[in-house]
Design brief:
The structure is a single chain. The protein is built from 2 helices and 3 strands; from the N terminus they run E-H-E-E-H. 29% of the residues lie in helices and 14% in strands. It is globular, with a radius of gyration of 14 Å.
Length: 101
């Protein structure tokens, strides 16, 4: 389960987001649609129309978070992430954040 620190603010974008958007597009969305500063000490969460994918916008260097990326040509390093994505979807997205209309 994900448990952010008590000092971290989490914002959820309620509208579906095109998952092709990269960091610049998401930051612009935070500024214009959510009327917030994307560089704030906050975590911004975006979901797609089917509500089966999520993207997070978070400035890791501001909180001393180490990022470990998958090395090119080593798909077996992705197994943990795929497992995490499945658990995150089951524990959070499917149960709490999105309700049926």
């Amino acid at each position: 389960m994900i448990r952010p620190g008590s000092d971290l603010t989490v914002y959820l974008c309620r509208e579906p987001v095109d998952m092709r958007k990269q960091i610049d597009g998401l930051a612009l969305l935070v500024q214009e649609a959510m009327d917030l500063n994307p560089f704030d000490q906050a975590l911004f969460v975006f979901g797609n129309r089917q509500r089966d994918k999520v993207k997070l916008l978070f400035w890791a260097h501001l909180r001393s978070v180490a990022l470990f990326l998958i090395e090119p040509g080593k798909p077996n390093q992705n197994a943990y992430i795929e497992s995490f994505n499945g658990r995150f979807r089951d524990e959070c997205l499917n149960k709490h954040w999105f309700t049926s209309r």
